[in-house]
Specification:
The protein is α/β, with parallel strands linked by helices and about 750 residues long. About 55% of the residues lie in helices and about 10% in strands. The chain starts with a helix and ends with a helix. About 0% of the residues have low confidence.
């Protein structure tokens, strides 16, 4: 019996201690919550690790980014420490036994509170460094080469050193400041009252007096603390103004630094909300959330940008266009002439980089390749990669690289880390465009102006984070293809249809684009294309330009297909002078491979080709998700599904199953669409290829920025696909059917 009482007594004591600690920590919850959230991103998320990976690569970044990162890390640690320190000192409820004055607390509770106030804030700030060190270590542990691993160890060691330095400074600061102010006030500055006040703030004899005393109002906060808090708040305001006024300034700081700076800012302003709510027993945070929900009815600032031009009114349909297109495709050839319909799967910058890499490699293998590509159907990042490839072809035409019957493959562009324009391959130029950091501006806008917009009653278009992402694409294009010979060169900032505004002799050089979005209100496809979208050919789909009745920038048309969850908001389609039509999100919500639209195209034109025996349809699906190569499949094993990567779901099955099903059907629809177009193409004696990525060769994160390791991984995988041609002494030719068949065999063996 005594043993039971002893056990229950200990459990009761532990429970009381937990309640004490939770109530004491409640005022500084923003410091703790943001510490957990940011570090979870860097430690658990693939994209977070790739952000750190990019920071360590000196080829990919500059020393200034490392400086800004550690400065932001210090800013975050200081905010975490200082706001926790201040908030823990406030006595918000004199009647609460856990936060009341010392005389109403037990000796144990009083000592516990003093220890927490003294040590917890500085430990929270120190943990920011230590957990960041672990994030670098974890990211580097996956590196295969020792040189790369050493770099991560340097970053890890730096964070550990800074953690020790931070802990030492915060522990000794009071002693140093007290001594400094005491010496100053004892001399000629004795008459200055403000200096006396500062000296008095630090002239407290013991830890119990320092950390046992409560702040009952703002008047109790020392002057030096006000100065410190004012500086920290001012830095947050400056960053807000900077990111709003100059979005591309975020690229200088880098994504990692922006995440840390944003965490510091929201520790600051979140703690202010906690103070107001706790001081006046008013549910401020709850009301702010309710206000944000209510304001969402009237403050949507995500209208899709449009231009006043309406040249698209003269667009032709797919059938009429394809008839003319096939006439010039050399049908007199003795061999069958290949024509290509290409689908590019979604997947953020990974998809964009891989799509442009594959298309450009085919183009560089035979400069007539693009003339044989009838259509590119893109989703999300696949749309961006397809658009970059098509725009690079437009640049070739404008530079005079194409003639009626011959092609000079040289493309003039500015490659990475060069100030001059050089002649390079299509692959090098498109890679230079997509090697840029598109995530930093988007994150800066998402965490600063666009987050503030959620709590404002009126929409401010300039706070829209969609513009930051679109303008980052425009800036990247302008940097690689600067205006030359007084010619406007920024195709991404220009109107969508300008892409096909070229001389008639080259009008079939640039493939038709079909950029797939999803209509939020109905779940249907919305397709942006230079050709008319007939719902009888594109079943149950909507023509974007018919719905808007205006032209848009190329960057906007691409973004409508790439509005992936939360990083990019749903775009509101609001035709001028008319009610809101609806909202657009990423095309991957409907079907992520782009194969559905590609199949509609193949099915439609096949009915209108004269002499179809002279042509061979080649369908290429460019996938980038490693899981696509070896999907979960239980058809071969009904005994133990886990052996085929289909684990049973038993834990919280009733809660998890509906969510898991909705997520998995997205991939299943893509698999179904690929299978459908594959079977049809093969029935037409065509050739079907899936050009994908293997997941065990290196990092392949989602998002809008790539480390050099991720880019090199994709480049090496593509190079390996063409290795067999080098071994036989040949050079891969995208228009050679035998070469395509060899490539298909190579792709079948990939990832095994």
């Amino acid at each position: 019996m005594n043993t039971k009482k002893s056990v229950f007594g200990k459990m009761d004591g532990i429970w009381e201690a937990i309640k004490d600690i939770s109530l004491i920590l409640k005022p500084c919850r923003f410091s703790i919550i943001l510490l957990i959230a940011i570090l979870a991103f860097f430690i658990l998320a693939d994209q977070g690790q790739d952000v750190l990976r990019a920071l360590t690569e000196q080829e990919n970044t500059s020393y200034s980014r490392v400086f800004w990162f550690y400065l932001a890390l210090f800013l975050w640690a200081i905010n975490t420490w200082y706001w926790a320190r201040v908030m823990l000192r406030f006595n918000f409820d004199k009647h609460d036994k856990y936060t009341a004055d010392c005389h109403s607390l037990s000796e144990q509770q009083q000592q516990r509170r003093i220890r927490i106030r003294q040590y917890l804030p500085r430990f929270l700030g120190t943990f920011a460094f230590l957990l960041t060190a672990y994030a670098f270590y974890k990211t580097g542990s996956g590196q295969s080469n020792s040189a790369g691993s050493d770099v991560y160890l340097y970053f890890t060691a730096a964070c550990i050193v800074f953690a020790g330095l931070f802990l030492y400074l915060t522990a000794k600061r009071r002693q140093w400041i007290n001594k400094l102010l005491g010496q100053a006030s004892a001399k000629s500055l004795e008459q200055k009252s403000w200096l006396k006040t500062l000296a008095h703030d630090f002239n407290e004899p013991s830890s119990e007096q320092i950390y046992g005393a409560n702040y009952t109002s703002l008047a109790d906060v020392p002057v030096l603390t006000w100065i410190m808090l004012g500086i920290l708040a001012a830095v947050s305001i400056i960053l807000f103004v900077l990111f709003t006024a100059v979005p591309n300034s975020a690229v200088v700081l880098g994504t990692a630094a922006i995440f840390l700076a944003a965490a510091a800012s929201w520790v600051c302003f979140g703690s202010v909300l906690v103070y107001v709510g706790s001081k006046y027993s008013f549910p401020v945070i709850t009301l702010v959330i309710i206000a944000a929900v209510g304001f969402s009815l009237i403050n949507n600032n995500h209208d899709i940008r449009y231009l006043e031009k309406q040249e698209f009114a003269s667009r032709t349909g797919l059938n009429n266009y394809s008839k003319e297109w096939f006439r010039g495709l050399n049908p007199e050839s003795e061999q069958k002439v290949p024509y290509f319909i290409i689908a590019a799967e979604g997947g953020g910058i990974r998809a964009a980089y891989w799509t442009a890499l594959v298309l450009s490699a085919f183009q560089d293998s035979n400069a007539e390749f693009s003339r044989h590509v009838l259509a590119l159907s893109g989703v999300s990042g696949g749309s961006l990669g397809s658009a970059v490839f098509a725009a690079a072809l437009h640049e070739q035409v404008q530079q005079g690289a194409f003639s009626a019957n011959a092609v000079n493959k040289g493309l003039k562009c500015r490659l990475k880390d060069t100030d001059s324009i050089t002649e390079a391959s299509v692959q090098e130029c498109t890679s230079a465009v997509l090697a840029n950091d598109f995530l930093s501006p988007a994150v800066a806008f998402m965490l600063y102006p666009d987050l503030v917009q959620r709590f404002l009653p009126l929409p401010i278009p300039s706070f829209d984070r969609s513009r930051a992402l679109e303008q980052s694409w425009e800036a990247a294009w302008a940097n690689v293809f600067p205006a030359q010979n007084n010619r406007q060169s920024n195709l991404f900032a220009g109107d969508f249809f300008e892409l096909w505004n070229i001389k008639d002799e080259n009008k079939y050089i640039i493939p038709n684009l079909f950029l797939n979005s999803t209509w939020v209100e109905t779940g249907k496809r919305v397709i942006s294309s230079n050709l008319l979208i007939d719902h009888r050919q594109f079943f149950d789909a909507v023509d974007f330009f018919d719905a808007l009745n205006r032209d848009v920038r190329l960057s906007t048309a691409v973004h409508n297909s790439a509005r992936f969850t939360y990083v990019s908001p749903a775009g509101r389609l609001h035709p001028p002078g008319k009610p809101v039509w609806g909202h657009l999100v990423d095309g991957g919500y409907f079907e992520n491979s782009g194969a559905t639209t590609a199949f509609n195209i193949l099915l439609s034109i096949n009915k209108h080709i004269n002499n179809p025996e002279k042509y061979i349809p080649v369908v290429i699906v460019i996938t980038n998700d490693p899981a696509v190569k070896e999907p979960c499949d239980n058809t071969e094993n009904t005994q133990d599904p886990s052996e085929n990567n289909c684990p049973k779901q038993e834990f919280m099955n009733e809660v998890y199953s509906p969510v898991a099903t909705m997520l998995n059907t997205r991939g299943a629809r893509g698999s179904y669409a690929r299978d459908e177009i594959k079977k049809y193409d093969q029935n037409q004696d065509g050739l079907y290829l899936e050009v994908g990525l293997c997941g065990d060769k290196g990092p392949l994160p989602l998002g809008w920025t790539l480390s050099d390791a991720a880019k090199n991984n994709m480049e090496q995988q593509l190079k390996a696909y063409f290795q067999s041609f080098k071994q036989s002494g040949e050079k891969f030719n995208a228009l050679n059917i035998k070469h395509l068949l060899t490539l298909k065999a190579v792709l079948k063996q990939a990832c095994r």
